[in-house]
Amino acid sequence: MNPVRESVLLKYWNEPDRVCYYSVPEWELFLRQARSSRLAGQWAYRLAQQESFDQIPEPAQMALDAAWTYSEHHQRALMWEIRQVEKVLHNLDCVKILLKGASYIYQEMEFAQGRLVSDLDVLVPKSAIQEAEKTLLDNGWESGKYDPYDQRYYRQWMHEIPPMVNLQRGMTIDMHHNILPETSRRHLDAAPLFDSAIALTVPDSVQKENPWAPTVSGWRSLQDVDMVIHAAVHAFQEGEIDGSLRDIIDIDGLLRRFSETSSDFWTRLLDRARQLGQTRPLYYAIHYSHEILDTPIPDEMVKPIRKMGPGLFARSFMDATVFRALAPPTFALRPFSARFSSFFLYARSHYGRMPLNLLIPHLWHKAFPKDKIPEPDNDGQPMG
Q: Per-residue pLDDT tens for 308-338?
């Protein structure tokens, strides 16, 4: 049983015109699930391409139109933030890579139309991250973590510095130096990612607004296979899986896009995963993308991909927990099985992120902090 695949939200992801014939109760559930999963904007884009869009009930059309309008505003704000960060970091003599949603949107990938992002993710070499942080601090950004323990947690153990917030615009930037924490059991050398990064051109939308703008951007992107591996690592190794439907959509979109544009993509993808030691996260990414969204896999790749996975018992247990955790909620109160699955995946993500001798004290500190330092509100002033 795959409750994600059979949900009203994703049942017709690859046949969006069939959603137009939902009943009123199905539309009500569909819109609730789309909003809670942050997929309303992407669904709005997909449905707007259908000739049968006019047959959607008017209230649903209005809701989808509002979701699309919001996502457009959100993406314009993100693009503006990307350009401002690029200006500030222009003199930083290192490779600067856009990651995840920011990269998909900047490159105007179709599957990211209507996509929302939580923050701006950037990757720079570890040797340059202190200078990058100082430059941002000098130009209107501020660290969002004030607890000394949180500062130590990020700087000593993680793959990023504490998140930074722009005091004017409120956008958060996550500055990474790797795609996995220093303490992760699958920690990798990030040098190959930087060596193979590709230069980005300025998006067409920016060129239309500013014809005098340079055509070559100061940003780079991970190469195609590294983008997929990073999405896999983020969803199934570094992240918590629960609530990661958007990550599955990203993985499906990346696999479909790159397999169409490169004849040897799948071979290079598996070889790269072996080189970086990320075969297991990649297996889970491909497996669940295929099981939920019917992502096409070449016949000759099925066996090599299956070999990267766990044994039968572990695979069956993961299927049961992942499908339950990812299933869009039908009611406000999720069933116990879904809540248990979410807790298991939460514990799994932390266990993969840190060894037990660090993880247990960390969880104890987060549950029972000694000193709670008040964080600033939106205007930067300390809260009472």
A: 999 999 999 999 999 998 988 877 667 788 8
Question: 């153990």: which residue's tokens?
Answer: 157
375 domain residue, yes or no: no
- When the pLDDT of each residue in the chain is averaged and rounded to a whole number, the result is 87
Q: Is residue 226 part of a domain?
A: yes
Q: Which domain holds residue 215?
A: 16-367
Q: Please give the tally of structural domains in the chain.
A: 1
Residue 381 lies in a domain: no
Query: 299-307 and 279-293 are packed helices; what angle lies between their axes, rounded to 10 degrees?
Result: 130
Q: CA-to-CA distance for 230 and 233, rounded, in angstroms?
A: 5
The pLDDT of residue 344: 82
Query: What is the per-residue DSSP string for 114-170?
Result: T---SSEEEE--GGGHHHHHHHHHTTTEEES---HHHHHIIIIISSBPPPEEETTT-
Q: Are residues 193 and 99 in contact, defined by beta-carbon separation less than 8 angstroms?
A: no
- The answer to pTM > 0.85 is yes
Identify whether 38 is part of a domain.
yes
